[in-house]
Specification:
It is a single chain. The chain is an alpha/beta fold. The protein has ten helices and 14 strands. It has helices spanning about 5-10, 60-70, 85-95, 140-155, 175-185, 210-220, 225-240, 280-290, 295-310, 320-330, and strands at about 20, 25-35, 45-55, 75, 80, 105, 110-120, 125-135, 160-165, 190-195, 205, 245, 255, 265. It is globular, with a radius of gyration of 20 Å.
């Protein structure tokens, strides 16, 4: 499909419903102005100016989807019976993400990363300390069963599924297998965004790893087109995938389809990179939406690449829209 045809069909992304299953979290950004050194200890005193709540990890993937398909996204994950649990649910609802299938577990902390940053009149804002609140152990059997029950309830209502694994305990082996089985049962596309333990995801439709994580899994370096081709074909075969998307930083992407030649897609934006935080979530969100809308794997990767090239121009986790992707693609000289 040429560039004009992709642009003309992009509105179809708004009709697709996606279910995100995985590790949901928030980033709490606390800002202040430096006032003086404390008399109690040799530390700065900050005069608080602002607190921002940003959706991170699986929450960012869901937020990216919501921005692209106007809120047709559901969330299945776990949160704690604590203050930040309420903040997470409120933030997800505020982003038009359905939280009906989220599971509360009073034995766990709601995953929250608090970054405290300060500035003075003659300096830029700088991060001073980060505080992580999280429970990394796998969810208990009771919570696991509730999540699996919610997967069975929700699956028929959506067109596709994303498994977003940040290794924070939600995606147990049983939950992964239940997700894959239910997706196959209802003929849904299921895409896994993973960094390690690739073999747990055997049988999904596609995975979207980066090149370093791919190299670790296959125990080989990718140094040229030949080794890239071999790596992709090995993953396709070992994990029984239909498609594979390897993100390669400034080298763009490589997309594979079972039984066909792989395609390389160049990076669309190398000059205006401010922050790559959350770019992987953007890629998997746009790529999955496009697959579910009937785009080819290559065209889906082009859409994901374009979406990522937009969000990396902003600091922190950011989202984009179909209209912005249309504009981005229309300004590309070639794909």
């Amino acid at each position: 499909m040429n560039k004009s045809e992709i642009i003309n069909r992009l509105d179809e992304l708004k009709n697709v419903k996606i279910l995100v299953i995985g590790d949901f979290a928030i980033d709490e950004m606390v800002f202040g102005q430096t006032e003086r050194i404390s008399r109690e200890a040799p530390v700065l005193i900050l005069e608080h100016t602002e607190t921002k709540i940003i959706l991170g990890t699986a929450s960012n993937a869901a937020n990216n989807i919501s921005s692209l398909n106007l809120g047709k996204v559901g969330a299945i994950g776990v949160y704690g019976d604590d203050y930040y649990g309420g903040v997470l649910i409120e933030a997800l609802n505020g982003a038009k993400i359905n939280t009906d299938y989220m599971v509360k577990d009073n034995t766990r902390k709601t995953t929250t990363k608090t970054r405290i940053s300060g500035s003075c009149s003659q300096s830029v804002t700088q991060q001073i300390v980060r505080i992580d609140r999280q429970t990394k152990t796998p969810v208990n059997k009771e919570t696991e069963q509730k999540i699996i029950e919610n997967i069975k309830k929700a699956m028929p209502c959506y067109d596709g599924v994303i498994l977003s694994d940040y290794h924070l305990g939600c995606l147990t082996d049983n939950i992964i297998q239940a997700s894959i089985e239910e997706a196959k049962k209802h003929n849904k596309i299921i895409v896994a965004d993973i960094q390690k333990s690739f073999d747990k995801y055997k049988g999904v439709t596609a995975i979207t790893p980066n090149q370093p994580d791919t190299e670790k899994f296959i125990s080989k370096f990718i140094k040229d087109d030949k080794s890239l081709k071999e790596a992709g074909e090995e993953l396709i075969q070992k994990l029984d995938l239909k498609y594979l998307l390897i993100t390669r930083g400034e080298n763009g992407m490589a997309v594979f389809e079972k039984g066909k030649d792989f395609k390389k897609i160049p990076a669309f934006n190398k000059k205006e990179v401010f922050d790559v935080t959350g770019a992987g979530d953007t890629v998997v969100a746009a790529f999955t939406l496009a697959l579910c809308a009937g785009f080819s794997p290559t065209d889906s990767a082009i859409i994901g690449n374009s979406a990522a090239s937009i969000v990396i121009r902003h600091f922190g986790c950011h989202t984009t829209t179909v209209e912005e992707i249309k504009f981005e693609l229309s300004n590309l000289k070639e794909i």
